[in-house]
From TrEMBL:
<protein>
    <submittedName>
        <fullName>Phenylacetic acid degradation protein PaaY</fullName>
    </submittedName>
</protein>
<dbReference type="InterPro" id="IPR050484">
    <property type="entry name" value="Transf_Hexapept/Carb_Anhydrase"/>
</dbReference>
<dbReference type="InterPro" id="IPR011004">
    <property type="entry name" value="Trimer_LpxA-like_sf"/>
</dbReference>
């Protein structure tokens, strides 16, 4: 993985975490046990510290940065969807930040809360635990159901499983020129989109 020190501060990655080789880690970045960092994610700890706690994930093309002396923290089982941007904020335990959402300075995403895809969480906003926020700017929509929280937890567990799968088998290869006979099926655990789960 591209990993850079700045002024002698070197990123820290727990051996049980998986960081994709195209992700970039700079400076004061601390990645805890069982974490996942996806392709093309950028964690720039050249101003403020960035901390990922146990079992959290940061998916493809996410950007994480912050102001000097302002930590950006993702607590245990935090789940950061594709393309999200976090800046000097806190994502509490078991919370989810949806795809392409932006969470600004000194904002706090409460425990088990969900920030909807493409939402803009303004600077200083405090999102209550177990609530859904959506929109530009983000506003509280409602309290989350037990089903929605369980769905989020299941999704996070699939990324924790993916961490193990990547550590065990991910490798760079040349593509095949045609589909092989009896092409194998991935051993990923089964998880459905929330809309499918609600219709069941």
């Amino acid at each position: 993985m591209p990993c850079y020190s700045i002024e002698g501060v070197i990123p820290v990655v727990d051996p049980s975490a998986y960081v994709h080789p195209t992700a970039v880690l700079i400076g004061d970045v601390i990645v805890g046990p069982g974490c996942y960092i996806g392709p093309a994610a950028c964690l720039r700890g050249d101003f403020g510290r960035i901390v990922m706690h146990r079992g959290s994930n940061v998916q493809d093309t996410c950007v994480i940065h912050g102001f000097p002396a302002h930590d950006t923290i993702i607590e245990e089982n935090g789940h950061i969807g594709h393309g999200a941007v976090l800046h000097s904020c806190i994502v509490r335990r078991d919370a989810l930040v949806g795809m392409n959402a932006v969470v600004m300075d000194d904002a706090e995403v409460g425990e088990q809360a969900i920030v909807a895809a493409s939402a803009f969480v303004r600077a200083g906003m405090k999102i209550a635990p177990r609530t859904l926020v959506a929109g530009v700017p983000a506003k509280t929509v409602r309290e989350l159901s037990d089903q929605e929280i369980a769905w989020k937890q299941e999704g996070t567990h699939t990324y924790q499983d993916l961490t193990k799968r990547c550590l065990a088998s991910m490798q760079e290869v040349q593509p095949l020129e045609k589909i092989e006979k009896n092409r194998p099926v991935l051993a990923a655990p089964s998880v459905e989109p929330l809309i499918t789960a609600k219709q069941a």
